[in-house]
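Fig. S4 source data, part A: sequence.
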Amino acid sequence: MTHPLVIKISNILAYVFLLSANIYSGLEGDKSGSPYHNSHETYITPAPFVFGVWGLIHLLFGGFVIYQFWDSANEVVVKVVHWHFVIIALLNTLWLTLWEHDYLILATIVVLFISGQISFVYHVLQKASFIPRNWADKLFIHAPFSLYHAWIVVILVLSIFAAVTPEKTDEGPILIVKIVVVIALFILKGLSIAYIEGFDSDIAGSIVIAWTLIGIFVEQQDPIIHWISLVLAILSIFHIVKGIYVLYRKSRSSGEHASLNP
């Protein structure tokens, strides 16, 4: 059996490797500083500010590789995260390399493998035996993996569109491209709702999708894509507010139950 310390040190090295690759790619890009936005722009590419989500994920994963040495994090790191974070970091770096060198079909395939890895960790973390026990669990384990789970869906959509649809031009999208984009927008909106309704009010994941829809609204000027993105973003925000309210009611109910059982 692999020693827990080996996994934790490997997580640190993988994090540094992934962070370095993204920083290098950002420095190599244009003034927007985003390797995701600078190339392969399509009619579903969101505005540059959306990619700030990746910076937040990096920040929280930085907290994760530190917090993993606390006793309270040992079980989840060893039993759930295990080698998955290392694999995710390596695959994400591979995706970025393929993306930048225009191997778009291969890049899409790599994202599918990343999705499988992060989905396994995400769904295990949703189980009752691994619910957050303190604020650090929520902030440095559940939050980054929830954000990343939603973010990799966004990256998958961008990769697929870059691989199979024309790049964005001043002439605007043809009808079939508009139809495909609108279908993808509804899928994203459905996923945003699923995070609230199906994943025990996962606010973080839903916010990532809603934020992306807002970014598409800002970036895309085709009237159909532009306004549908806004409407779906607003609907997603309503569900986020509902999810926050549900969590608030649960916390109040738990507090009242605890006060009745000294």
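Fig. S4 source data, part B ends here. Residues 4-257 form one domain.
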